[in-house]
What does this fold into?
Amino acid sequence: MRKVKPIIALLTDFGEDDWFVASTKGVIKSINPDVEIVDITHNIKSHSISDGAFVLYNAYSYFPEKTIFIAVVDPGVGSSRKMILIKTKKYFFIAPDNGLLTYIIKENPKCEIISIENKKYFLSEVSSTFHGRDIFSPVAAYLSKDYKIEKFGKKLRKPVILDIQDAKIEKNVITAPILYIDKFGNLIINIKKNEFSNVLKLKEIKNKSDKEILACQTPLKSSYADVEEGEVVAYWGSSEFLEIGINQASAAKKFNLKVGDVIKLKV
Amino acid sequence: MRKVKPIIALLTDFGEDDWFVASTKGVIKSINPDVEIVDITHNIKSHSISDGAFVLYNAYSYFPEKTIFIAVVDPGVGSSRKMILIKTKKYFFIAPDNGLLTYIIKENPKCEIISIENKKYFLSEVSSTFHGRDIFSPVAAYLSKDYKIEKFGKKLRKPVILDIQDAKIEKNVITAPILYIDKFGNLIINIKKNEFSNVLKLKEIKNKSDKEILACQTPLKSSYADVEEGEVVAYWGSSEFLEIGINQASAAKKFNLKVGDVIKLKV
Amino acid sequence: MRKVKPIIALLTDFGEDDWFVASTKGVIKSINPDVEIVDITHNIKSHSISDGAFVLYNAYSYFPEKTIFIAVVDPGVGSSRKMILIKTKKYFFIAPDNGLLTYIIKENPKCEIISIENKKYFLSEVSSTFHGRDIFSPVAAYLSKDYKIEKFGKKLRKPVILDIQDAKIEKNVITAPILYIDKFGNLIINIKKNEFSNVLKLKEIKNKSDKEILACQTPLKSSYADVEEGEVVAYWGSSEFLEIGINQASAAKKFNLKVGDVIKLKV
It folds into this structure.
C-alpha cells in the first residue's frame, strides 16, 4: 500500500508579512520532510481567539483523516497558560489552552486532551514569545511521525472553553449573537440550520436596540442571487448558520455591527 | 517512468482571512491526496470577473502541462448561471460560466467546453453560496484522477465572453482601455506588443478627456530603471502589454485611473 | 535511501494579488516538478530591500539543509545591477545584488558568491521587468536538480552590502536603530542578545530627540504577558534582538516610529 503524506494544517494570527509562518514551516520540514503543510489562514485578527476558533471550526471537517491542525492565536504566550493536544476520532489539534478549540471540543465530546509538557519535543531553546515555532511546530512534526499522544504530556480534564451565547427564542423573536463576519461583510449568526430550519418565515431583522429594522423578508432566500444588488438577504450559509448579507456589499459596514453584537429576528 | 503529481492551481476572490480556501483544499486532498495544490491568488477584488480573468490569463501558460485551474469569482452563485470545464491542448479550466475564462477561450479557440452538470462528482450536500467547495473542488479532484471530461456534463456551445474593447489607431492616436492595475499601481493597457511593437515613438500619453498629458516620452523605455524616481514611464510589460508606471510610485493613484478607463496615446 | 524533495523558498515584494508569484511557481514546477515550494512572504513592502533582508535573515536558519532561497526585492530590475547566487555551508541563495543578502553574507563570511550570467539557464525570452520569473526561478529550478553553482556564472568578489548602524554604548546609554517593525507593531532594535544580555537593568527608553521617555522598566520582561494590556514592554524577542512592544497594541503606531529611526536606552 502506498503511503499518503500526512498533512499539517496551520491557522494563526501571525500575518503573512514577517518570518513567523516561514520559520514555523521550516521547523516542521526539518523534523519531518515528508509532511505536507496546508495553510488555513494566518490572518486571524491579532489576538482574536473567537475568530480563530470559528474559522478552524468551519475548515477542519473537510480535511482528510489524520490531519494535524496547529492553531496559534496566543495573547497569553509566555504566561502560565497551558498548551493542549487533542485527539478526536479523525484528527489531531495543537493549540494554546485559551478557548481556541472550543467548537472542536463541543463537537467531539469524547476527544482525548493532553497538556503539552514534554520538553524533549520542543526546540532546544524556547523563546518566551514564539511558541508557534519553538513548541507547537516540533510537537506537530513529531506527531506526524506517528508518535503516541501520551508522549507529549499528561491528560488534562478541564480545558478552557469560550462562553458563546446560545440563540434564544421567545414568542416570535429569536435573539442571537454574531459569531463571525466574513470577508464579504456577511454576518454569521449563532442560529444553526439543524435547530431552526423550521423557522422559515423570517419577517424582520432588527439590531439589539430594537430601533432599526435591518430587513424584511419572507421567506428565507437561498443566496445573494435571489435579491437585487444592494439589497439585504438572509439565508442559510455554507457553514450551516444563518447569515445576513447584502448582494455585492458589506452588511457589517452598512449596519455598523461587529462580532458579539446581538441580533433580533422576528419570525 | 516515475509519475509526476498532478497540479491543481486555484484563483479566487475568497480572500485569505476565512475558511473558504482551506475547506476547498481539504475537499481536494480528501478525494485525491496525491494532487499538489498551488495558489495563484485568492485576492481578486470581490466579484471582479474582469480582474480574475486577466490574472488567470497572465499566469496559466507558465504552468506544467496537464495543470487543472480552478477559477472562482462568482457573484451569480446560486443563480441559474452555468458552470464550465474547458480542455485546451495543454490544460484544464473549471469556472462559473460568467466570462472568467474569456482570455483562455480566445487564445485557445479549439478548446472543448463542457457544461458541468453531473451531480455524482459534487459533494453530497451542495450549499447555494459555496460552489467552490461543493462543486468546483471535487470536480477538479476527480479530473486530476484522469476521469474523462465527458463524465462531468454535456458540450456547451456558447460560453459567456467578456466584452473587451480593442485598441484602435486613428491618425497618430491609439485609444485603448486599461485592462488591469497591478499592485505597484502600474496601468496595463490593451495594447499588445506583437501588434503594436512597431509603434516605438510614443510621444504623449493622455487620459480620455484629452485634457491632461500624463507623460511625454520618445522612445519607449525598457523598464523603471530607465527613468528617475517619481518619473512616468511607458514600456512593454512582462505580460506583453503596454504598461504605464511611475518609478517607485503608483500611476493609478497619481492619475486617479481605474480598470476600464480609456487611455489615448499620441504616437 | 529514500530521496527527500528539495525545497525552494520564496521571499518577494510581489504581493499576493497578481500573477507574479504564480508564474514564478509555474516556471519552477515546469523545470523541476519534484521540487517543493515554500512561501516565506510576498508582502515585503514594495522596493524595501532592508525589510526583505531582515525577514530572510530571521527565517532561513530554520529550514532543512540544501534549501534554495529566492529573494526578490528588486527596484533596479532592468538596470545593470548584478544578480547573485550564494552557497553557504547549508543553503543556497539567489537574489539581485542590491544588499538583500547582507545578513546572510555577514553570518556566512566563507560563502561562495557567483554572479549569475549564463543565459542558458534563463527563460528564452527575458523581460526587462520580471527577472523573478524569467531568471531567478529557472536558475533555482536547475540548481535544485543538483547543477553545480559554477555553471551559472563567475565568482563575484564584492557583493553589495547594506550599511546597518551598529548599537553604540556610551556611559549608560545605548543608541541603536530600529531594524524592523513586525505586524504587531513591535519595534525590533539592533541590540543583539548575545552582545548585550548583561545589560539587564533597562531604565528608560527614549526616542532620538531625547525628549520623550517611551517607557521605564527594570528589569527586562520576558514577554507581553508580564505587563498589563496597553503597557510598554521591552524584551529579548524570538529573533534574539531587543524588542519594544505594547501588550495588545502597536508600539510603532503609538510612538510614530519607523525602520531606521534611532532609539536611546538608558541602562
